[in-house]
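Q: Could you predict the 3D structure of Guanylate kinase?
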Amino acid sequence: MEREKGLLIVLSGPSGVGKGTVRKEIFSQTDVSFEYSISATSRKMREGEVNGVDYFFKTREDFENMIKNEELLEYTEYVGNYYGTPVDYVKQTLEEGKDVFLEIEVEGAKQVRKKFPEGLFIFLIPPSLTELENRIKTRGTETDELIRNRMAVAKDELKMMSLYDYVVENDKVENAVNKIKAIVIAEHCRRFRVEQSLKKYLGVE
Ligand SMILES: Nc1ncnc2c1ncn2[C@@H]1O[C@H](COP(=O)(O)OP(=O)(O)OP(=O)(O)O)[C@@H](O)[C@H]1O
Ligand SMILES: Nc1nc2c(ncn2[C@@H]2O[C@H](COP(=O)(O)O)[C@@H](O)[C@H]2O)c(=O)[nH]1
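A: Sure. Here are the predicted structure tokens for Guanylate kinase:
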């Protein structure tokens, strides 16, 4: 029998809403088996970030070569830097029957939707705009000017939430994680043979 492909899961939402925090918590749990697609970016590495773990850090020139060589599933320029998803890893991992998790902004998610309409698209929202701004500020990675720019983009991004299959509020990390896991299991059962979903998520042979 032909092996079923994996599910492409896309988590989007405005900068600072907690996508990375929620994603890391999901991946730390042992009952989850998604593969994380590491993005490429031309932005500068932040303190504590590791090349090849958080991102593949590129010069603008190298990133533009990746675009030319069609190495990206999607890409965008966000607040002055390029971000994109390396296509080979995603395609190969899905072919192997594994579920792939992308954590990307809204413009990129729109591009992925065109290429993978069967993907699962989840949008993470903050409890309020004030809380969103507090979170970006508390993270302490952005200058005041960049925070203003990211908040301006966030207001437009939030208008796009209706394009997603699900909207999840990140009030508490634990709540968001549990909701996302429940959505993924339900959607897996809906899209694939139920035997495959039972085996994958509940260990039932
Ligand atoms: N539910 C939550 N309650 C309070 N603080 C949170 C919550 N989720 C995340 N945070 C905090 O908000 C800040 C931003 O989180 P995070 O970096 O995960 O956001 P992000 O959406 O991945 O941002 P970006 O898109 O810019 O990479 C961090 O300081 C994080 O600890
Ligand atoms: N379209 C894409 N967006 C991406 C990708 N990787 C990350 N992102 C998003 O960019 C912003 C800014 O990220 P930061 O690390 O500088 O805070 C944020 O919304 C990320 O989710 C990608 O491959 N493609």
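Q: Anything worth pointing out?
A: Residues 13, 15-21, 135, 138-139, 170, 172-173 surround adenosine-5'-triphosphate (ligand 1) (CB under 6 Å).
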